[in-house]
Amino acid sequence: LRTNDAVNKNSKLTLKSKQRLSKTKSENTLRAYESDWKDFADWCTHNNVPALPAAPETIVNYLSYLTDHEIKANTLSRRISAISENHKAAGYIDDNPCRGGLVRSALDAIRREVGTYQQGKTPIVIETLTDLSRYFDLSTLSGIRDRALLFIGFMGALRRAELVSIDMEDISFS
């Protein structure tokens, strides 16, 4: 996934376009996908079936194997995404086995069987945020900045990566 041959060998794309296309996934996503793909490829090797291109039945059997080993439904979805992305990177866009009904039906059946309940985290409320903001030293620029970031992040429901990538040009006051 890090070096997509279909993109790199495309003579119609400029170098800048190729560089941009290499950044479609975050580093953490790439790491997770690499780990998931390695697990799938190892499972395929152990079961004497091809990983690329994989048959839909191979993916369903792999999902069934993982379910028997108590892998959660959301992890299974990520595994399917990793397998799908590797097939797309290898040029199997129209023949991607993860897009077929058999794999989707298997995932639906597994979700129904094991459930998809997730233990949510208790959300922070504005009163708690206000209490926390009192600990910032407002006599320093870094204290003012950190307090502002806390409130901007909360009010914008921003993820950490979105929050730290804000530039002055992105901000307007009204």
Characteristic terms for this protein:
174 residues; mainly alpha; 9 helices; 59% helix
Q: Can you walk through the features of this model?
A:
This protein has helices spanning 5-8, 15-21, 27-46, 56-68, 73-89, 101-114, 126-133, 141-155, 160-164. The mean pLDDT is 87. The chain starts with a helix and ends in a 10-residue tail after the last helix. Helix 3 (27-46) packs across helix 5 and helix 4 (56-68) runs parallel beside helix 6 (101-114). The chain is mainly α and 174 residues long.
In a few lines, what is going on in this structure?
The chain is mostly helical and 174 residues long. It has nine helices and no strands. The protein is flat, with a radius of gyration of 22 Å.
Number of helices: 9
What fraction, in percent, of the residue positions are helical? 55-70%
Task: Characterize the biggest β-sheet.
Answer: none
Strand content: under 5%
Mean pLDDT, as a whole number? 87
Shape: flat
Give me the secondary-structure topology.
Blueprint: H1 5-8, H2 15-21, H3 27-46, H4 56-68, H5 73-89, H6 101-114, H7 126-133, H8 141-155, H9 160-164
Helix pairs in contact: 3-5, 4-6
